[in-house]
Amino acid sequence: MTQIPFPLLAIDIGGSKLVAAVCLVDSEINHGVKLFHLLQKSHDVTLAPTTPTDELLKFIDSAVDEVFDAAKILKCDIKAIGANIPGLAEPISGTWVYACFSGIRNFPIAPILAQKYNKPVFIENDVNACALAEKYFGGCREVENFLWVTVSNGVGGGLVLRGDIFSGSFGNAGEIGHFCVEEDACEAIHCGCGNFGCLEAQAAGPGIARRFKKLTGKDETAATIATYAKQGDTKALAIYEKTGYYLGKAIAASINLINPGKIVLGGGVSQSFELFAPAMQATVNRQVFRDANQDVVIEPTELGTDAALAGAAALALRGLR
């Protein structure tokens, strides 16, 4: 029996942009589930270490109010709200526990939004949300065990085991970004976690830019360096090859530990998948226990740039089950 899509409000809170949208999904989670975006609104934000929570709420209200009011005009009855949290989240209490880049700590965001909009609100760490979206809407609908890896301004991991997010004993499982992948003191970059040589420090966008500057003296973004690489610039190609090596080291270790069906990559840097994939795959092939992991697939997300909003919708959908 075909299910009639019903609306969920998705909120993606990023470090520089906040996006809200009505997402229409099937009322049952199944292999044919579809996701549609409607009434999408985005606002630029600046989350800094001094950002007060009342200012953050103004950003959220500005985007969500527009979408919520438009949904009412169209007689679109929103069933629930899902929100991605950039940082540590406590889904049961609905608390944004901590984000190092904004300084936000112990902020009860879900109860506040639930009271204002009179709808159930479900939150989760943004990387975990993306992993859940890949399970519900993307390339892992038939995969029970996989690791989602976001490579963007940072590197994060969302672990799905037996079909749902695995959070670990303290809610922080999947932190692949803090595997040490560079031990040479001359090459290891200081990571925000306090250590040196972490995957996040070496392979995320800022790390790519920093390594390129060290090699060339030029200040460029990871996206610009990718453009150079696609044009054949040998130094840019070398930077992305080393990025693939770093990712391959961390992914191989993850595969050996988890024995997953897939590794899925998302985030801005993953849009340059073809630049780092050969070196990444070669490194995995060298370092993985191949007899135990013969069929594992490493691929970019099917959700593309929609992954974050899809993740927020997936949180709301799961919360209503």
Provide the succession of SSEs: EEEHEEEEHEHEEEHHHHEHEH
Morphology? globular
Radius of gyration equals 20 Å
Task: Give the uncertain stretches in residue-range form.
Answer: 30-34
- Determine the mean pLDDT: 88
Q: Structural class, please?
A: alpha/beta
Give a count of the beta strands, DSSP E runs of length 2 or more.
13
Q: Termini distance?
A: 18 Å
Percent of residues in helices comes to 25-40%
Major pleated sheet: 5 strands, mixed
What is the topology, as strand order, of the major beta sheet? 3-2-1-4-8
β-strand amount: 15-25%
Number of H- or I-type helical stretches:
9
Structure characteristics:
single chain, 321 residues, alpha/beta, five-stranded mixed beta sheet, 9 helices, 13 strands, 22% strand
Topology (SSEs and partners):
Blueprint: E1 6-13, E2 17-25, E3 35-44, H1 53-73, E4 81-85, E5 88-90, E6 95-98, E7 105-107, H2 109-117, E8 121-125, H3 126-137, E9 146-151, E10 155-161, E11 164-165, H4 199-203, H5 205-216, H6 222-230, H7 234-258, E12 262-266, H8 273-287, E13 297-300, H9 307-320
Parallel strand pairs: 1-4, 4-8, 9-12, 12-13
Antiparallel strand pairs: 1-2, 2-3, 5-6, 6-7, 9-10, 10-11
Helix pairs in contact: 3-9, 5-7, 6-7, 7-8
